[in-house]
Structures are given as C-alpha cells and as structure tokens.
Design brief:
Blueprint lengths: L8 E2 L7 E6 L10 E7 L8 E2 L5 E7 L2 E5 L5 E5 L4 E4 L5 E5 L6 E7 L8 E2 L7 H13 L12 E4 L15
Parallel strand pairs: 8-12
Antiparallel strand pairs: 1-2, 2-3, 3-10, 4-11, 5-8, 5-10, 6-7, 6-9
Length: 171
C-alpha cells in the first residue's frame, strides 16, 4: 500500500502558488505521470510559464479562476469548481485567482514523473499585469457571472478547441 504525506512547498520557478506533489517518481514507481495539489491564494496569480515536455490536466476543486494562455496571454479560459482543462506541452499560460479572498484549489496531473517541468517565461512579464487586471475587472463587474455558473471542459493547444461536454468559455 502506498502512503503519501502531502507537504505544501513553494512552487518551482518562483511561482507564488503552493504545490503539494502527491504522486511522483520520488514516492511511487511512476515513469511518465505525476500529480499534485495546487493552492492559489485569494488575489493571487501564477507567473507566465510553460511545461516544455508535459501535457497537463487541471481539475478545479474549489474557487473561481481564469487561465490566460497564448503567445501574448490573449486567450482566457474561465473555471468554476468541477472544471477540467487540458494544456498541451509548450503553451504559454498563467493562472489567475478571480477572488480577492477565497483560495483556488486544483488537482494537477502531468505526463512527467517529477512534477517539476516548469519553464518561466519572463518575456511575458510585461504583458501579464495588464491582462490579469483586465480579467479581474471583468469578474468584479459581474461580466462572468453566467459563464461561471457551472464547470467547463476546455483544451488549450496549438489549435484551441473544446472537448465533448459543456462548451468552454473563451473571451
């Protein structure tokens, strides 16, 4: 029987969220898969980054978030509890907690064994603050209320397309 103690730790590459790897090559004989809990405090956001070699699936457990993705963070995907998001390898992105107070809790699964494939993208640091502020203004104004009424399923890859299920929300 596998027993894992979950210890939150600062995220790789200077990300402000706390991550707690659950399953990875250090605790189980996995060869191409890892999973962990990611907590993003109220008002928090990740720095622009990519996962160079791993596919990522994110399941939002609690909170309301947005993922900004693309070469200029031009795509916005909204997430309510229960939402699932797939991000292809190499796609620039960052997560934004839409609430100023409540945390976002997500289960993240990647196709790499160490749960450490995070590549910072400092070239997007200049554009990120205005994109984050724009999304937060829209959320505060109630523009997303109907869009966040339930979970979504979305894919962010070279070509953005939806998976079977509820339509993704792209702004």
């Amino acid at each position: 029987m596998l027993s894992v103690t979950v210890q939150p730790q600062p995220s790789a590459a200077g990300q402000p969220e706390l991550r707690a790897p659950i399953i990875h090559s250090g605790v189980a004989p996995v060869r191409g898969l890892s999973a962990g809990l990611v907590r993003l405090a109220g008002g928090g956001h990740a720095a622009p980054h990519t996962h160079a070699h791993s596919e990522t699936i994110i399941h939002i457990v609690a909170g309301f978030a947005a993922t900004l993705a693309g070469d200029r963070l031009e795509r916005v995907v909204l997430h309510a509890p229960g939402s699932v998001l797939y991000i292809a390898p190499g796609i620039p992105h960052l997560a934004v907690n839409l609430s100023g107070e409540e945390r976002v809790l997500a289960l993240e699964t990647r196709t790499e064994p160490g749960f450490d494939d995070v590549v910072p993208l400092p070239e997007l640091d200049a554009v990120a603050p205005s994109r984050i502020a724009e999304v937060r203004r829209s959320y505060a104004a109630g523009e997303f209320a109907g869009l966040l009424a339930g979970p979504t399923t979305a894919t962010i890859s070279i070509r953005t397309e939806s998976l079977p299920g509820p339509e993704p929300v792209f702004l």
